[in-house]
Specification:
By secondary structure, the chain is an alpha/beta fold. The protein has twelve helices and 20 strands. The N and C termini lie far apart (about 70 Å). Bound molecules: S-adenosyl-L-homocysteine.
């Protein structure tokens, strides 16, 4: 077993059970990519077992803070079973949807592993050297614990390069592949609240879909109904989750805006799939910022607007430029809100805190000359948990704003 010795004073974050060890904290020691190492303080005290990543800034990711723990296949199966049991406790599958995030990286003690379940199909991302090393036992454990037979890999993510890993996609487990009659396709339809949505685990973003907004879509449907919102603008719609929610809430005119043609085609298909009149829905393949400006120049207004942009700030270092981009779209959206209209605005940037996001949106309202009530603060659905010891895991934050009446 190889040992990594930290510099004096650098043991504190591990003692607080924070799972990352940066390159600069290490005094001596090294190992192969993904190899399990014993991490100790400068004076030799055990701190953690972790996975070594020779090329990443995050040089070690901790597996366990328990010296008695053995990092083997059974360890991964236990962690996976714990994570799945937590989702069972949340009762998502019975209450809300058969699309569930089963493993959410650090929060589930498995840094670098993301697994989503879509019906009977698992879709996984292996994002760190340690997770890559244990990929086969993890695949086996995932099938055993969930009872699913089909596992698709979506390790086509840039962060793998930081770990010195090439991108990879394809079936990792697919028992009936030989028989084309029964072989699964990568296409699935999931249930989400009162609607259904399709996705393709091979072609969709991330593992195929954005499950983290599940509960916020339900809230949106409820508020559209409660506040009688008729016209809805869904910006960065992807495959139209919020658009279908709006229609379910009784909206009569919904515009989905996205720069991805295939995502919009699916959004439009979702309108039909759920029995809504396709005439109520328009799919706009366009840049959101330009579209908002055009609608302003046309003098249009909307009863409800959703802004769910991609990650503008991957890290805090990008926060300033991202802040300008967030402020800009929020300012434009404020201008398009009808009297007592609703703005649902999000940031999924880890580098932008909830507090900073609030300030950005406040600045946008000020510039637009629009005030509103913050009626609710939003976050990711609880199957994308943040833990007590790893607050950095928090990424999605949102606000529901009700424009003040000027009448
Ligand atoms: N709201 C969606 C998820 C949005 S993800 C849901 O509920 O599922 C962000 C989306 O923004 C992606 O679909 C991406 O294609 C789109 N996008 C990124 N940049 C864009 C731009 N400049 N204009 C329009 N869409 C953009």
């Amino acid at each position: 077993m190889k040992t990594i010795t930290l510099r004096e004073g650098k043991e504190r974050s591990l003692q607080r059970r924070h799972p990352w060890i940066f390159q600069g904290s290490i005094a001596k020691g090294g190992a192969d990519s993904g190899e399990t190492v014993r991490v100790q303080s400068h004076d030799g005290q055990f701190l953690a077992w972790g996975a070594f990543s020779p090329s990443s800034q995050i040089r070690v990711r901790a597996w366990s803070f328990d010296e008695a723990e053995r990092i083997d296949a059974a360890f991964f199966e236990r962690r996976i079973a714990q994570a799945v049991a937590m989702r069972e406790r949340l009762a998502i599958a019975t209450l809300a949807s058969d699309g569930v995030r089963l493993i959410h990286g650090e929060a589930d003690g498995l840094p670098g592993l993301v697994v989503d379940r879509y019906g009977d199909l698992l879709s996984a991302q292996f994002l760190s050297a340690g997770i890559e090393r244990w990929r086969e036992p993890i695949a086996e454990a995932l099938l055993r614990v969930t009872g699913c037979q089909h596992l698709y890999e979506r390790s086509d993510v840039n962060v793998r390069e930081l770990e010195g890993l090439a991108q990879r996609t394809g079936w990792l487990r697919r028992p009936d592949a030989a028989d084309p009659q029964t072989a699964p396709t990568t296409e699935v339809t999931i249930r989400e609240h009162a609607w259904r949505l399709s996705l393709d685990v091979a072609e969709g973003h991330k593992t195929g879909y954005y499950l983290d907004q599940r509960d916020n879509r339900k809230l949106f449907a409820d508020l559209v109904r409660q506040w009688n919102a008729r016209s809805v603008l869904n910006c960065y719609s992807y495959t139209g989750g919020f658009s279908v929610a709006a229609l379910a809430g009784g909206a009569t005119e919904v515009i989905s805006v996205d720069s991805s043609g295939p995502a919009l085609a699916r959004a439009h298909a979702h309108v039909r799939l759920n029995g809504f009149d396709p005439a109520l829905h328009t799919a706009l393949d366009a840049d959101v910022n330009a579209t908002l400006r055009r609608f302003i120049s046309e003098g249009r207004t909307f009863d409800a607007i959703v802004l769910d942009p991609p990650k503008f700030a991957p890290t805090a270092a990008h926060a300033e430029r991202a802040a300008r981009a967030y402020k800009d779209i929020n300012r434009l959206a404020f201008k398009l809100l009808s009297d007592q209209g609703m703005l649902l605005t999000f940031s999924c940037s880890g580098g932008v805190s909830a507090d900073l996001f609030h300030k950005i949106v406040a600045g946008a309202g000020l510039d637009a000359g629009v005030d509103g009530y913050i009626v609710k603060r939003l976050e990711a659905a609880p199957d994308h948990p943040t833990t007590v010891t790893f607050p950095e895991g928090e990424y999605l934050k949102g606000l529901v704003i009700l424009r003040k009446s000027e009448r």
